[in-house]
Amino acid sequence: MTDELNQSAQPEKKEKKQLALNVVSNKKHKGFGAGSIDLSDVACVMIDQGVAFIDVGAMHAKSKIERGIKFTPNKEDTPNGRPCWIVWVAVGRDEQGAYYAGATSCEMLVDTEAKRGWKILADHVNRLDSAIKSRYILDNIGPTEKAALRKLLMEHNAEWWEHSPEELKLLLQ
């Protein structure tokens, strides 16, 4: 009986809400911190040697290509690097359904043998922001990379591709 009294006499502890950002969740974020940034509708597409593939690790700079590589902002430090790209692809929704709302490409050089690479982190962050804001910036990829990205987007979800703006389709011709 004394245990029951002690338990009911203690005030209930409230759980403290923490500001956290979970970028790989498939749930929509609601509640405390909502509206700060939502990355749940952004995919990371890697393009390497003419092949495009989705790699969620790129969101944390831990894609298959980036793992084990020491990056530097000096291009001269990676003289034998092969060009690779991260393409941030944002999915938007309207009354007709989902579509590819934003796509921005970020260049980097990777020398797997030397475990060295070049990229400009600020450019990657700014282009991620542009994709989230439904912009298309694909000015630094060539025809081979554009074809690989177009193929991946079409195969990943043909309905989203069909519903996407003509601007994206023209950029990827």
- Tell me the distance between the termini: 78 Å
**Uncertain stretches of 5 or more adjacent residues:** 16-26, 32-36
From N to C, what is the helix and strand string? HEEEEEEHEHHH
β-strand percent reads 25-35%
Shape: elongated
The count of DSSP E runs of length 2 or more, i.e. the number of strands, is 7
Give the class from helix and strand content and strand pairing. Answer: alpha/beta
Quick overview:
The protein is of the alpha/beta class and 173 residues long. It has helices at residues 2-9, 121-132, 143-156, 158-163, 166-171; strands spanning 42-48, 51-54, 70-72, 82-94, 97-111, 116-118, 136-137. Strands 1, 2, 3, 4, 5, 6 and 7 form a seven-stranded mixed sheet that branches.
What does this structure look like?
The chain has five helices and seven strands. The protein has 173 residues and is of the alpha/beta class. Strands 1, 2, 3, 4, 5, 6 and 7 form a seven-stranded mixed beta sheet that branches. The longest helix is centred in the C-terminal third of the chain and has 14 residues, at 143-156. The termini are far apart.
Protein topology:
Blueprint: H1 2-9, E1 42-48, E2 51-54, E3 70-72, E4 82-94, E5 97-111, E6 116-118, H2 121-132, E7 136-137, H3 143-156, H4 158-163, H5 166-171
Parallel strand pairs: 3-6, 5-7
Antiparallel strand pairs: 1-2, 1-4, 4-5, 5-6
What key phrases describe this protein's structure?
alpha/beta, single chain, 173 residues, elongated, 27% helix, 7-stranded mixed beta sheet
